[in-house]
Structures are given as structure tokens and as C-alpha cells.
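Notes on consecutive records. When two proteins share a document, each keeps its own sequence and its own C-alpha cell line. Never mix them. Below: protein one.
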Amino acid sequence: MPKIIAAYFDEPGFDSYPFNKDSYRRAYKQLADLLAERGGTLAIVRGQETYGGGNTFSEGWICEGKTFQQIRPLTANVLFNRGNLKADADALVVEEPALDHLCTDKSVTYAMFPALFPKTIVVHSAEEVPAALDALTTDQIVAKPLDQEEGKGVIIGTKEAVARSLPFFPYLLQEFLDTSGGIAGICEGMHDFRIITIRGAVIAANITTPMPGSLVVNEACGGVQHDVPLEKIPSEALALFREVDASLHHFPNRVYCVDMGRDQGGRWKLIELNAKPGLDPLERDAGSARYLRGLADLLVSV
């Protein structure tokens, strides 16, 4: 029997996010093909309400050739958590819940690696904001919700503008990392440099630059992403990644990415960690292809 790897998403309905985007749909079909070559089968499961404990779901869709067929019930060998699945202790989950929490909650990430980030303060009420802003030294301040992705809720501005704009609490306030000096041989100007790892191995790297006039460096917010060949990864970026990964060895099947930037003084700082690097089709670039193939290798070996 092929090993069944069930990718879990929060939203119900097969065609919901991320399959409402053609590039994601192609990438997951390619993952299904790669798993089949390795003796595995990809299934899709959706919604916490369908979870029955262990590796079981009341329904799901399983890849059969070129299409996914709905089946009820569905039992998987491995769960590939791409959402916020609350699995029990009997489940075998890739994207372990503790690693997911560490990467998703930015306050937890900062608490684990305070020396690697720009100075950061978490505020829990409007009354805490003035003192926190006084303690931060840069003219521009970055404000982030604790648990959002794709640049959602990020505010960059003066201290006065940030103080007026915080929509709720808690919020993370951070000194602005001025990456406008770029990275020699890779990019000019503002950037977000990402290293993707599987089990501690560097699988891919990419650089994202913002839209003209924007300081939010995120592809979901209009930024432009480019693959960086592994041999061109700066030694300082690799050293920062290794320092982070050395603290995460207790997650044997870890899949995550480290986002970082180089300031104008040449210092590299963390921006955030992400436990769910997005999947792109094989044809996008060499890094996307290595990541997709490496993910298939991991999932069938767990």
C-alpha cells in the first residue's frame, strides 16, 4: 500500500485557498506526482471539524492519477499541516505544533533569539505604547501583529504615526532594519533574504524586494521575488541561519525558513521565521524545484 500523506488546510471545500490560485494548484499536483514516484500518495483534508483524532478524518480527497477523488473516511500515515490543525498526541505531523508556534508567534520567536533581531518590544495596551516607543532608537518603527503572515497588519512609520495606527493589542514594536544598502552581487536597496531548510539542510534561498515606494518587503504585498543560487548565499547569512538552526535540532523533521536582512552597517539581523514556506511549481526556478523535491523526500521518509 502506498504511504498516504494528507495535506491539511483550514478552509472547507477542495477549491478553497490555496487551490483558488493556479500556481498553488499546479505545485500541489506536482508534489502529488513526486510523492507517487517515491511510493506515496497525496491526500487533501480540510477543516478542524473533519478531524477524528490520530491521523483520521471524516472525509478528504485522494490523488488518483490526474485528479483528486473524494473519499469518506480517510486515514493517513503522515499529516502535512498547512493550516492550524489541532492534532492529538497520536497524530504523526510534519510541521510539528511546537515549531509552528515558535515560528508563528513573533513574540515567542523574539524571546528565543533576542540578540539576533532588531530591538523589539511587545505592547499589550495603549498605555504601554509611549514608553515602548521611547525605548526604540530608530526614526522609523515597524509594528507587527504577533501571528499574521504575508505582511498582513504590518505598519512602518514614524513613532507618532505608529502610535495612532495600532488597530488592536497585543502588537510587536520593533526598530526599523534599514536594508537600503542592498547586498553586493545580489540586490540593490531594500530586501528580505530568505533561506529555506529541510532537516537543517539549506534547500533554497531567495530575495524579495518591495514595490517602488513601499517599505513592506513581501511578495503577497506586491514585492518581487528572485531565486538566489546556493553558492551565492553570503557567508554572513549562512552563519545567521546556522545559529538559529542550532537551537532547533530537537525538531528532527523541521521544515521552515529564516527571513533576514543586511543593514547599512553590514550587520545581518533576523526579520522572522516561517514554519510553512509556500510551494511554487517546479518550473518557477531552481530553488522552488529543489524545495518541492526535498519536501517529497521528507514526507515519504517520515
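Protein two starts on the next line and is unrelated to protein one.
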Amino acid sequence: MRGERQPMEAVLGDMRGRLPGISRVALVPLLLLGVVSAIAIGVVGYRLISASGAFAVERVDVTGAGPASRVVERSVLTIAGGKSLLDVDPNALAATLGALPRVQSATVDRAFPHTLAVHVVPERPVAIAPTAEGRVVLAASGRVLGEVTRGSQGLPVIAAAPADIPGAGGVVTSPGVLQELALAAAPQRGLRFQVIGYGQDGLTARTANGMAIRFGDSVDVAVKLKVARSVLRRADTRVQYVDVSVPAAPVMRQDTPDPLTANAPPPTAPPIVTAASSDAASSVADAPPAESIHTLFG
């Protein structure tokens, strides 16, 4: 039938019929030579097209990067600008972009004739940490995103020693700081944490209105936040302190003492120490929570 592929025996037989005197053994090198010649022509053609500038990278289309779009675009043009799309390795370029501080991951595709399409999954800033040089923004992943910007000024400040915070692009490994970041990254839904610390009694946060909430650790932090919000909704008066380290048995202290517990000692929250500066850190280290916050925020 027409269109069916002929077996090699038929091809060789046909060629022997057309070229009498050529043996089957002699035809094999001729076929191999033809294949090699075709590959060589293809390679030469590829190189000629690549060098001609027909597909030179002239434009970068960045999506998903948000404020980091310009940085990503500049990085791509620095690496691939003017090169042929045929010479760009999308996977290698995506890996390079993933090393940028505010980029969690990236994908790169060729969009002929002159465009590289880049889609970015950005890091999510969740907290501010003090360092010896100033304050930096941290992502939920623990990555250091860089200096504080106008858009990140409302994030909570976490307690951390300067040695715990690497340079921009580095990733935090301190277990205490990672627990603080886990709390900062959880949906707070109106609690508005201003400071988050990790001390001898575990993980504690202080809200903008001065209330302290003790979580113990970041295990089941979403459940603990839900319990804290439930407790606060049912409180009759302003609450000073809530302990949800055991979510099934929350503890609350209000401004108005309960007659049944009027003589009970007040609960204590761990001091929240931030290293905004060496002087502030030393003056706050041994202070109770209220004095620590007062020292840092006035």
C-alpha cells in the first residue's frame, strides 16, 4: 500500500536494482554518510540562524513578580539580552532567577521571535528582623529579602540575634526564629501582632494594643489563633494576656479581676527581645514584656 514504510530489505533491493554492481555491504556506508551529512547540515543551519540575529532576545515579559518585576527583567536582560533565543537555556536561566532574594521560583519560556516569557512565584514577606546594620524583611520561608521598604513597614518585628540573620538572599536556620516566622506567616485576622518573640516560655506575640498572647510553640498555630480570637470575642472587658499554648484549656487575664481569682498571681509572658540595636537589646533582655515593648516602641 502507498504510504506504508518499506522495510530496509526492500529499500536495499530497490537501490541494487537501480545501481547494479553495488553490493548490500557497500550501501550501508552510503546510508550512514547521508545521515551524518543531514545532521551536519542541520547543525550548520542552526548556527547560522543563531548568529544571524533573527531570534535575538529583545524583550522580557515578566508576570507574577510584583515589586520585583524590574529586578527580574534587568537580570534576564543582563544574562540573555542580545543572545539568540536558540542559545538560551530556559532551565538554567530559571535557576539563576530563583537565587534572587525576592524570588521563590521562576519558569522561563521562549516566545519567538524576540521575547522571553518569565513567570515568577515571589517570596511572601511576613516579618521584620533587626540586624547590626539595620532592619531587614524576612519571608515565610526564612529567606532574607533585603532592607525594609515602604510596603513592609507594617509587618511585625521578630526577636533575633544579629548572628541569626544572614545577608540578603540567605535563609534563616535558627529554630526559634523559624517558629516566630511561622506565627507571623499565619493568618492573624485582626489581631495585628506588633512584636513576636521566642523565650524560655516559648512563643509569644504582642498586639498593637499591648495585649500578650502566649502560643508555646508554632505547632497547630492556626488552631491556637482561632482559640485566641474566640476567647477575645467572649471577653467582657479588655484582656491583658491570653495563653493558648494548650488550645483545649486557654487561660485569660482581664483588666477587671475575676473575684474567684483575685488573689492568684498574674501570669507571666516571656520577655520579647529584639536586637534593634545593641543598646536596645541589652536594656530589654531582662525586662518583663511590658517594659520591653515600652523600651523599643515608646
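For the record: DSSP finds eight helices and twelve strands in the chain.
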